[in-house]
Write a structure and sequence with these properties.
The complex is a heterodimer of chains A (596) and B (163).
Chain A: E1 6-11, H1 14-18, H2 21-34, E2 41-46, E3 58-61, E4 65-67, H3 75-84, E5 94-95, E6 102-103, H4 110-113, H5 131-136, H6 141-149, H7 152-162, H8 174-183, E7 190-195, H9 204-211, H10 213-227, E8 231-236, H11 241-256, E9 261-264, E10 269-277, H12 287-294, E11 318-322, H13 323-335, H14 337-340, E12 351-358, E13 364-369, H15 374-381, E14 391-396, E15 402-405, H16 415-420, E16 429-434, H17 439-453, H18 459-476, H19 484-498, H20 502-506, H21 509-527, E17 542-544, H22 553-557, E18 563-564, E19 572-573, H23 583-587, E20 593-595
Parallel strand pairs in A: 1-2, 7-8, 7-11, 8-10, 12-16
Antiparallel strand pairs in A: 1-3, 3-4, 5-6, 9-10, 12-13, 14-15, 14-16, 17-20, 18-19
Helix pairs in contact in A: 2-3, 6-10, 6-13, 7-8, 7-10, 9-10, 9-11, 10-13, 17-18, 17-21, 18-19, 19-21
Chain B: H1 14-25, H2 33-44, H3 49-59, H4 63-72, E1 84-89, H5 92-96, H6 99-110, E2 123-128, E3 140-142, E4 145-147, H7 152-160
Parallel strand pairs in B: 1-2
Antiparallel strand pairs in B: 1-3, 3-4
Classes of the chains: A alpha/beta (596), B alpha+beta (163).
Amino acid sequence: MQHIRAHVLVCGGTGCMSAGSGKVIENFKTEIEKKGLSDEVMVVETGCHGFCEHGPLVIVYPEGTFYCRVTPEDVKDIVETHLYKGRIVERLLYHEPLSLEAVPSYKDIGFYKKQERRVLANCGRINPEAIEEYIALGGYEGLAKALTTMTTDEVVEEVKKSGLRGRGGAGFPTGLKWSFAKAAVNEKKYLICNADEGDPGAFMDRSVLEGDPHKVLEGMAIAAYAIGSDEGYIYVRAEYPLAIKRLRVAIAQAEKLGFLGENIFGTGFNFNLHIKEGAGAFVCGEETALMASIEGRRGMPRPRPPFPAVAGLWGKPTNINNVETFANVPLILQKGADWYCTCGTEKSRGTKVFALTGKINNTGLAEVPMGITMREIIYDIGGGVINGKKFKAVQIGGPSGGCLPESMLDLPVDYDSLISAGAMMGSGGLVVMDEDTCMVDVAKFFLNFTQSESCGKCTPCREGTKRMLEILTRITEGNGHDGDIELLEDMAVNIKDSALCGLGQTAPNPVLSTLKHFRHEYEAHIYEKRCPAHACEKLASYTITDACKGCGICAKVCPVKAIAGDPKRKHVIDPIVCIKCGACMAACPFKAIVKG
Amino acid sequence: MSMENKCCCGGENKEKIKIDEILAKYVDTKGFLIPVLQEVQHLYNYLPKEALEYVAVETKTPISSIYGVVTFYSQFHLNPRGRNIIRVCQGTACHVRGGKQILEEVEKELGVKAGHTTEDLRFTVETVACIGACGLAPVMQINEDTHGRLTPEKIALILEKYE
């Protein structure tokens, strides 16, 4: 047998691919060939390592040396110095943002230290297009155990005992959900995987599908066995082409080895899986809308009951879970509910994957035990706020969630604590905001999103979100007036109470939570006509400082002729004529124009 | 374009044959409408009226239902689109890292607003609410390529590369 002495793992996730990892892989292959190392060094394209900020990422095993921001030009150096001469390429190592120290090994990096990678364990470690690698790490053991040694009741009980709750946002207990679908009497039942990850700022589902697709397939097969379904759908966003491709490869491989399809493990259990590509509608993440979309109709929600477990897809009993939820299931079956419970809190067991984005040093995916504090996630794993700015808020849960201020950073992150703080787990997007972010603008941003994604079926959501957006726009443009805040609050409560589906019921959350924690920012916009973060263009004012050399460039670029001054003398801006476009500031070669 | 069997030159109508092939693939599939429309759109780059009418007749689906679906999903387009599709991300992470300025620069550079196509059909500008490359924010996608860590100054150079 061929002896491979080193493995070069190159991240092939979307983040790293966008940063150019495709060319990096190509160059590794040619350079290794040139050096005649092809028989002893293997190049593997893996799924996402989660540390997208520093992509493209390359890890060289057996040492586990972690190289970041590797450009195609750097490859020659790595092959020459590391693989050929056995020395580490210092300049490509990761440097901790605070201590500036170089960290050679993967596992010593602050970003990974506090993580508990269960769902993401294989992401970045295996080739997602090789089923053998998944099997070698214990893959499909859970399914084999369920099918050959357990009754369907026992499987549901085990999942109930594990305390697993839906990772899509609402946190409904998974085992309980399965028991409803299992109890439904019908010759046909469907199982659906919701991979319509629509929350802006969340990309963990995509990472799992791209980096470890078999884990999701195995979880689905176990669920199908438990509830008595023989047909399933994975509803994936069309915006995730790589995930779709990897799923297709994975399904074909699993069918070939008899883990999917007819007579699985020779037990007589059949399960066939289809992929449905979404067509671009955020509301299709809502389960009844998702089913309407699979049926080929407009993706509009319908009132519940009847719940999908009673009458779902094509009127048949249906069970829907999210990608991350399914990815937890094989572990529960393989290692047992007791093992699963060793991590997390009393009411929120296991881990949760968060997508850290925004004004944070370490953007990426982090899987942490439930109950960890927000501060640990943002500072220990995320490396704090970029450019040494002051932390202002963290937005959690996407358009349905809320913003938490500095004073709530020691809150344990679990389903119930977040709800009581006015936010929600959502799909796990964490967007960090610094002192330059205006909270009214953030609320407007989310309302703008939900308003344009509202399907239009029910009036509170269709009209209500539009009216709220109008008020917020007015406030950010300096036209807010007394009573606006109270009107927003009143509408928010009414929309929450009366909208048809989760989209409308949670749409006012970003407004309510910013009002709760940052009311003074709203008041500054309305009563003092100023934006404390200097982010709202219409409320900004531009002034020319003494650094002005009188070159006249600003006067030339000003579209409304608001700037005047003699040559070589300090110029002035007429605030009444100025339309606050910022063109002068961008054009000034002496940085003499400031926004205040 | 018409959906006659014969083209004006007397030959077979190739586009009709292609739509027939798509329909044949989904003949027994439940929930066929969206995948059929996705494939038809792939054929033309948008959904021409005549093609929709043809699908309606062949599948015995009311044209009103088809229009209902087409106008509901952001992926479907009723007008011809540019050779290069620009999707400027306006997701949360890109928003707080200046995604709006990127969009404004693209609009300024091409002289069209988001949702529109340049007259020479070179570019269509769209916005998207997150492509999941938040680590590279702010980002935009042109066709299959993702461009990350953008600044307004980089835009003109990037656009130049697309014909």
